[in-house]
Q: What sequence folds into this?
Protein backbone atom coordinates (compact mmCIF):
# COMPACT_ATOMS: atom_id res chain seq x y z
CA UNK A 1 0.00 0.00 0.00
CA UNK A 2 1.37 3.40 -0.93
CA UNK A 3 0.88 6.36 1.36
CA UNK A 4 -2.42 6.81 3.11
CA UNK A 5 -2.06 10.36 4.38
CA UNK A 6 -4.18 12.45 6.68
CA UNK A 7 -4.13 16.14 5.79
CA UNK A 8 -4.67 18.64 8.61
CA UNK A 9 -5.21 22.38 8.35
CA UNK A 10 -6.59 25.15 10.54
CA UNK A 11 -8.69 27.80 8.76
CA UNK A 12 -7.27 31.33 9.11
CA UNK A 13 -10.23 32.47 11.23
CA UNK A 14 -9.45 29.74 13.84
CA UNK A 15 -5.69 30.32 14.12
CA UNK A 16 -5.90 32.61 17.17
CA UNK A 17 -7.70 29.90 19.14
CA UNK A 18 -5.20 27.30 17.95
CA UNK A 19 -2.30 29.62 18.94
CA UNK A 20 -3.73 29.98 22.45
CA UNK A 21 -4.20 26.20 22.74
CA UNK A 22 -0.63 25.61 21.55
CA UNK A 23 0.65 27.93 24.27
CA UNK A 24 -1.35 26.16 26.96
CA UNK A 25 -0.19 22.76 25.75
CA UNK A 26 3.44 23.96 25.65
CA UNK A 27 3.20 24.98 29.29
CA UNK A 28 1.72 21.57 30.17
CA UNK A 29 4.54 19.90 28.23
CA UNK A 30 7.21 21.71 30.24
CA UNK A 31 5.88 20.21 33.48
CA UNK A 32 4.34 16.91 34.50
CA UNK A 33 1.46 17.27 32.03
CA UNK A 34 -2.02 18.52 32.71
CA UNK A 35 -5.76 18.12 32.43
CA UNK A 36 -7.69 18.72 29.24
CA UNK A 37 -11.34 19.70 29.35
CA UNK A 38 -13.27 19.16 26.11
CA UNK A 39 -16.86 20.21 25.46
CA UNK A 40 -18.65 18.74 22.47
CA UNK A 41 -21.37 20.40 20.39
CA UNK A 42 -24.08 19.17 22.77
CA UNK A 43 -22.32 20.73 25.76
CA UNK A 44 -21.14 17.48 27.30
CA UNK A 45 -17.79 17.95 29.05
CA UNK A 46 -15.07 15.36 29.25
CA UNK A 47 -11.91 15.83 31.29
CA UNK A 48 -8.79 13.79 30.61
CA UNK A 49 -5.19 13.72 31.75
CA UNK A 50 -2.40 14.54 29.31
CA UNK A 51 1.18 13.43 29.82
CA UNK A 52 3.92 15.97 29.11
CA UNK A 53 4.90 14.04 25.98
CA UNK A 54 1.35 14.06 24.61
CA UNK A 55 0.90 17.75 25.43
CA UNK A 56 4.21 18.48 23.68
CA UNK A 57 3.20 16.56 20.57
CA UNK A 58 -0.14 18.37 20.36
CA UNK A 59 1.55 21.73 20.97
CA UNK A 60 3.99 21.06 18.13
CA UNK A 61 1.20 20.15 15.72
CA UNK A 62 -0.87 23.21 16.65
CA UNK A 63 2.14 25.52 16.41
CA UNK A 64 2.86 24.35 12.88
CA UNK A 65 -0.78 24.74 11.91
CA UNK A 66 -0.96 28.26 13.37
CA UNK A 67 1.93 29.28 11.12
CA UNK A 68 -0.35 28.51 8.19
CA UNK A 69 1.41 25.29 7.31
CA UNK A 70 -0.85 22.44 6.40
CA UNK A 71 0.36 19.16 7.80
CA UNK A 72 0.28 15.67 6.42
CA UNK A 73 0.31 12.88 8.98
CA UNK A 74 1.79 9.57 7.95
CA UNK A 75 2.67 6.46 9.89
CA UNK A 76 6.34 5.49 9.87
CA UNK A 77 5.45 2.18 8.21
CA UNK A 78 3.74 3.93 5.26
CA UNK A 79 5.33 3.20 1.92
CA UNK A 80 6.37 5.92 -0.48
CA UNK A 81 7.22 5.94 -4.15
CA UNK A 82 10.75 7.07 -5.07
CA UNK A 83 9.26 10.38 -6.24
CA UNK A 84 7.57 10.93 -2.87
CA UNK A 85 10.78 9.97 -1.05
CA UNK A 86 12.66 12.51 -3.19
CA UNK A 87 10.20 15.21 -2.12
CA UNK A 88 10.67 14.36 1.56
CA UNK A 89 14.46 14.33 1.20
CA UNK A 90 14.60 17.43 -0.99
CA UNK A 91 16.60 15.64 -3.69
CA UNK A 92 15.95 14.39 -7.20
CA UNK A 93 14.38 11.03 -7.97
CA UNK A 94 17.63 9.71 -9.53
CA UNK A 95 19.42 10.47 -6.23
CA UNK A 96 16.81 8.35 -4.41
CA UNK A 97 17.40 5.49 -6.87
CA UNK A 98 21.15 5.83 -6.29
CA UNK A 99 20.62 5.61 -2.51
CA UNK A 100 18.56 2.45 -3.09
CA UNK A 101 21.12 0.92 -5.46
CA UNK A 102 23.97 1.58 -2.99
CA UNK A 103 21.95 0.03 -0.13
CA UNK A 104 21.70 3.29 1.81
CA UNK A 105 17.91 3.28 1.47
CA UNK A 106 16.12 -0.06 1.91
CA UNK A 107 13.29 -0.77 -0.51
CA UNK A 108 11.06 -3.54 -1.75
CA UNK A 109 9.99 -4.42 -5.27
CA UNK A 110 6.31 -4.33 -6.12
CA UNK A 111 6.30 -5.79 -9.61
CA UNK A 112 8.61 -3.46 -11.50
CA UNK A 113 8.18 -0.61 -8.99
CA UNK A 114 10.15 0.20 -5.85
CA UNK A 115 8.68 1.24 -2.51
CA UNK A 116 10.41 2.63 0.58
CA UNK A 117 9.14 2.99 4.13
CA UNK A 118 8.80 6.49 5.50
CA UNK A 119 10.81 5.53 8.59
CA UNK A 120 13.73 4.51 6.36
CA UNK A 121 13.52 7.78 4.41
CA UNK A 122 13.50 9.75 7.70
CA UNK A 123 16.45 7.72 9.03
CA UNK A 124 18.43 8.47 5.85
CA UNK A 125 17.51 12.14 6.14
CA UNK A 126 18.71 12.27 9.77
CA UNK A 127 21.95 10.47 8.84
CA UNK A 128 22.66 12.81 5.93
CA UNK A 129 21.79 15.91 8.00
CA UNK A 130 24.22 14.77 10.72
CA UNK A 131 26.89 14.06 8.12
CA UNK A 132 26.44 17.57 6.67
CA UNK A 133 26.69 19.15 10.17
CA UNK A 134 29.86 17.17 10.85
CA UNK A 135 31.36 18.18 7.49
CA UNK A 136 30.60 21.85 8.14
CA UNK A 137 32.15 21.67 11.62
CA UNK A 138 35.22 19.89 10.25
CA UNK A 139 35.56 22.45 7.47
CA UNK A 140 35.26 25.34 9.94
CA UNK A 141 37.84 23.73 12.22
CA UNK A 142 40.22 23.26 9.27
CA UNK A 143 39.70 26.87 8.20
CA UNK A 144 40.37 28.07 11.77
CA UNK A 145 43.58 26.03 11.94
CA UNK A 146 44.68 27.34 8.55
CA UNK A 147 44.13 30.95 9.69
CA UNK A 148 45.95 30.29 12.96
CA UNK A 149 48.95 28.78 11.18
CA UNK A 150 49.16 31.74 8.78
CA UNK A 151 48.95 34.23 11.60
CA UNK A 152 51.59 32.48 13.70
A:
Amino acid sequence: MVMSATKIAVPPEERDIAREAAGLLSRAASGPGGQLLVRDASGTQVEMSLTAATAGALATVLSRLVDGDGLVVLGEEEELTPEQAATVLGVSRPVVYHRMDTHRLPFRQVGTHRRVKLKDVLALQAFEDERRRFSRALSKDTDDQDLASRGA
Summary: The helical segments are 15-29, 52-66, 82-89, 93-101, 118-151. The mean pLDDT is 88.
